[in-house]
Amino acid sequence: MKQIAALIVLGLALMPLCAQEKVSAEQIKLAGEILELNGTTKNLERAVKVYRNRCDSLIDRYLARAKDQKAADKVKEELKSAIKEEMNLEEVKSDTAKIYAERFSVEELKAIAAFYNSDVGKKMRLLNDDMTRDINAVLNKHSREADERAKEILKAKVPAQEPVDVQIKPIGRIPAAPPQGT
Q1: Would you say the pTM of this structure is higher than 0.70?
Q2: Closest to 136 measured CA to CA, from 177, 182, 180
Q3: What is the DSSP letter of 182?
Q4: 126 within 8 A of 78, measured Cβ to Cβ
């Protein structure tokens, strides 16, 4: 019983340390500005659009096989509405801003914004899409090399089961900017 009481007292003593500080409206506002400045907002917009389009395509293909197309059309609209509601761009941006706001103080957020508004920060913003494409090219190059190496190992170790194709993709991907002129 003494141990339980001691644990309760310890828990109560540590509770303020574990409590998350509430973020201020100023932190959220600054974090939102940083998301705009560092290109995260554009990447979120692209990611949400790609996700919605992929879901729409999958829904259309899946429900095209339904025997009752009128019922399928109703389900399709309900699914698309649910996906649009859950993948609400403004909520995604707001939740992303909260991630920054929870991790940085107002002063730190101001410093980050000041960096992105500085000459070096402006240059980084200008080159961001280009660097993202180059980083994705590096990821793809390494993926192809890993695929080739995996094929060679499999051919040497398991010749009777020569693979038709091997693709080992990296986990995650930095969203690439759309090609220029689109």
Answers
A1: no
A2: 177
A3: -
A4: no
How far, in Å, CA of 45 to CA of 177, rounded? 11
Say how far apart CA 48 and CA 91 lie, in whole Å. Answer: 11
- Rounded distance between C-alpha atoms, residue 180 and residue 166, angstroms: 31
For 104-172, the three-class secondary structure string (H helix, E strand, C coil) is: CCHHHHHHHHHHHHCHHHHHHHHHHHHHHHHHHHHHHHHHHHHHHHHHHHHHHHCHHHCCCCCCCCCCC
Task: Report residue 172: phi and psi, to 5°.
Answer: 80, 170
Residue 50 is inside which H or E element, if any?
helix 40-63
pLDDT along the chain (182 residues), means of 10: 51 47 91 93 90 88 86 87 90 94 96 96 90 87 88 77 54 56 54
Q: What is the DSSP letter of 87?
A: T
Which residues touch 177 (CB under 8 Å, ≥6 apart)?
42, 46, 129, 130, 132, 133
Please measure the distance between the N-terminal and C-terminal CA atoms of the chain and give it in whole angstroms. Answer: 70
